[in-house]
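User: Look at the shape:
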Amino acid sequence: MVFNNNLLIGAASASAVTPGAGYTIDNSCMFDGSADYLSWTPGTPTDNNVWTFSCWAKIANVEDADNLLNLLDGTASNSDQCYVRIQDSKLRSIQYDSGYQWQLKGSPLFRDPSAWYHFMFCVDTGAATEEQRLRQFINGVSVTSFTTESQPSADLASSINESGRSMAVGRSAFAGASEIGYMNGYLAEVIFIDGLSLDPSSFGEFNSDGVWVPVDPSSLTFGNNGFWLDFEDNSSAAALGTDVSGESNDLSVSGLATSNQTTDSPTD
């Protein structure tokens, strides 16, 4: 895995995974950039201060400077927001409530519409080491270069995974605001872990060619509000939001149809 200035090299392309990697992802979900997203309102979390978000993504519209990819959002209003997303071609996470409680804006750019990338974001605001409270990983590699880095104060509660506060996948909510950003591209293996800040090895490994490939996540502990979307069931549009983690935290579907299921995936 090589960083070339601020462009990440080594993403899994549509045919890059070496046979025999062991674990395959059969399906992804296509998002059209205008109305498609999933949402869910969590209950009591295992630990509101500790969580992990992981997904594989292919960015379709690399010309959109504002909202290439909206990964995970827990926004209540335009002045009270928390999100993980690609914006201006960079992975960023912000929690804002009258002042920035955290900001993490990575410097690598993502502009290859043919590549599958693995994005991972970890929160543990109780970590004694400040740099361990927010972590970003791209294709198994820790992001250590940021255009903006502001770590949260110790034990700050996260607005994502907050009981009763809606979470969205594929949309930046900005409730009541004039601008709502939707994802334009593909998502596969969308996983949210409540109560654990995990390492990349929980979701992937490097194969013999040095390419980051997925591993089976079925043995993970997902927590009260955890979910795993594999998009394998398209018996109805609603079935695309089926949680297969065992926690039964199904997400509601908006804008999606059964035809949004695709066989384009990080391992196909």
About this structure: Confidence is low (pLDDT under 50) at residues 1-20. DSSP finds no helices and 23 strands in the chain.
